[in-house]
Specification:
It contains 6 helices and 6 strands. The protein is of the alpha/beta class and about 180 residues long. It has one domain: HUPs (Rossmann fold). Strands 3-2-1-4-5-6 form a 6-stranded parallel sheet. It starts with a helix and ends with a helix.
Length: about 180
C-alpha cells in the first residue's frame, strides 16, 4: 500500500509515458539534466531515481544529492516534466520493488522506459533493467549506434529509441567547436 501511495503522489494521471533515470547523481551535473531533457522527446515525464548506496564509491549523503538535482531541475525550461523519486523507494532501480512499481504502472496503462546514456550500456549493466524498453541517449561526440553497444547477453527489448538529432543540439556543439578553434 505504501508503494501505491507514493506513486500516486509522483505520477499524474495524464502522464502516460514515464522514463526512470537511475544513477548515483554524485555529483548531480547539468549533463544529467541534458540527458533527461533529451528523453522528453519520447516520454511525458522523467523520474530521476538516485541510488541510495554504491558498492563502487562513497556517495555524498542523499539529501545533498537531491538538493543538487532539484537546483538543476529548477533551472530547466522543462522542469514541470522532471521529478525526483524517493531514494528509499526506487534505490537506483536495483531492487525487486522497482519491478513491482513497473507492474502497477503498466496495469494502470502507463508505458514505462529506462532512460540511460549510451556509456552506461556495459557488460555489467543491471539485469533487472534488461527486459524494460530503453531510451538510449547517445553520448556527445560518440558515433557508435546503440545497437553496436549491446554486448553478448545484453538484450534491450523493443522499442529502443536512438535520440540522435536534437533541435539545435548539433548547432550548439558546432558553434562551441568553432569558437574554441
Amino acid at each position: 500500500m505504501r508503494i501505491k501511495k507514493a506513486m500516486s503522489r509522483i505520477f499524474n494521471r495524464s502522464k502516460k509515458k514515464i522514463a526512470f533515470f537511475p544513477g548515483d547523481f554524485c555529483p548531480a551535473l547539468s549533463g544529467h539534466i541534458e540527458i533527461a531533457e533529451r528523453g522528453l522527446d519520447t516520454v511525458d515525464m522523467v523520474l530521476f531515481c538516485p541510488r541510495f548506496v554504491s558498492e563502487d564509491k562513497d556517495l555524498t549523503p542523499m539529501p545533498y544529492r537531491v538538493e543538487m538535482l532539484q537546483g538543476l531541475i529548477e533551472g530547466s525550461p522543462l522542469s514541470h516534466r522532471l521529478k525526483i523519486g524517493d531514494a528509499h523507494l526506487f534505490s537506483g532501480l536495483q531492487t525487486n520493488r522497482f519491478l513491482t512499481i513497473v507492474s502497477i504502472l503498466q496495469r494502470a496503462g502507463r508505458e514505462i522506459f529506462i532512460l540511460t546514456s549510451q556509456s552506461e550500456l556495459t557488460p555489467d549493466y543491471p539485469r533487472i533493467h534488461r527486459n524494460i524498453p530503453h531510451i538510449i541517449v547517445p553520448d556527445m561526440g560518440e558515433k557508435t549506434a546503440p545497437e553496436e553497444v549491446l554486448w553478448g547477453e545484453l538484450h534491450v527489448t523493443e522499442p529502443v529509441y536512438k535520440i540522435a538529432a536534437l533541435k539545435g543540439f548539433n548547432d550548439s556543439v558546432n558553434r562551441a567547436m568553432t569558437t574554441t578553434s
